[in-house]
Amino acid sequence: MQIKHSYLSRVAAVAALTIAFIVIGYVQNTQAQAASKIAPLTSDHKAEGEYKRLRSGTHAPAAYLAAYQHAQAVPAAANLPATHRASAGGASVQANQLPSGRWTSIGPAALDTNLGDPAYIGVTGPNAGRMVTIVTDPTAPGTLYTAASGGGVWKSTNDGASWLPTTDNMPTLEIGALAIDPTNPKVLYAGTGENDHCADCGYGLGIYKTTDGAASWQMVGGSTFTTVIGNAFRFNVLAVDARVNQYVWAGTNHGLYRSFDGGNTWYGVGTSYFPFNNSNFQASDIVIDTSTNPSTVYVAVNAPFGGNVGSGVFKTADNGTTWADITPSLITDRTQIGRTALGMSKAAPGVVYMMVNSATEDLLGTTFDSNGYPSANGLIYKTSNGGGSWVQYAAPNVCNAAHLPGFGQCSYDIYITADPINPSIVYMAGVNIARSTDSGATWTDITTVYDPTPSPVHPDQHYMTFAPPAAGQSYSPLYIANDGGIYKSGDTGTTWASLNSNLATLEVYVTTGGTNFANQRLAWSGMQDNGANKYTGDPVWDELFGGDGGYTAIDPTDQRIVYEEYVGLVMSKSTDGGASWSSATNGLPQNANLSRLGEKENVPGALFIAPFI
Question: 497 near 458, Cβ under 8 Å?
Answer without folding.
Answer: no
